[in-house]
Amino acid sequence: MANRLLKHMTGAIEPIHFIFGTLQILANRIQVVADRHKAEVSLKQFLLLMIIIQFREDYPTLSELAEEMGTSRQNIKQLALKLQAKELITIEKDERDTRAVRLKPSPGATEIFKEEKAYQDLFIERLYEGLSEEEIKCLAKGLYKMLVNISHMDDLK
């Protein structure tokens, strides 16, 4: 269905509208296909875990992660609670600000991350199949600019 729709859209609408629609469809399809994998964690949980693991000492707060991932604090909290239930992270009060909580990886998180990373690497390799290095660089540059633009649109209602 998506392929037929996209073929129709490419000739029927302006490229900027095609890109906008395609980003929405692609985000949904990536999540659906990735979550078919019988993993211990979902794609969104894996992404959150990956970000948490990148911090070495000063682990992120819920609010910092929400901003980093472009979502609400409540969405991050729900993902974090699922990871905590799987004993992959701990949620601890901040020592300096008792209103804030920090998310820290548990010892088992690194092992799960390594196991899932192999699948994620294969998934990404297949997703970019057929794209040249030049196309990937152009896409990355364009998406980065769009991220910058959207970060300046908080005042848009």
Explain how this protein is built:
The chain has 7 helices and 2 strands; from the N terminus they run H-H-H-H-H-E-E-H-H. By secondary structure, it is mainly α. The protein has 2 domains: 1-36, no CATH class; 41-151, Winged helix-like DNA-binding domain superfamily/Winged helix DNA-binding domain (Arc Repressor Mutant, subunit A). Strands 1-2 form a two-stranded antiparallel sheet. Strand 1 and strand 2 (101-105) form a beta hairpin. Helix 3 crosses helix 5 and helix 3 packs across helix 6. The protein is globular and about 55 Å long. The mean pLDDT is 87. This is Transcriptional regulator.
Descriptive labels:
single chain; 157 residues; mainly alpha; Arc Repressor Mutant, subunit A; 2 domains; two-stranded antiparallel sheet; 7 helices; 2 strands; 68% helix; Transcriptional regulator
Brief synopsis:
The chain has seven helices and two strands; from the N terminus they run αααααββαα. The chain is mainly alpha-helical and 157 residues long.
Portion in helices: 55-70%
- Counting structural domains, the number is 2
Overall geometric form = globular
Query: How many β-strand runs?
Result: 2
Q: How would you classify the quaternary structure?
A: single chain
CATH architecture verdict of the largest domain: Orthogonal Bundle
CATH class of the largest domain: Mainly Alpha
Provide the CATH superfamily of the largest domain: Winged helix-like DNA-binding domain superfamily/Winged helix DNA-binding domain
The termini sit apart by: 32 Å
Protein name: Transcriptional regulator
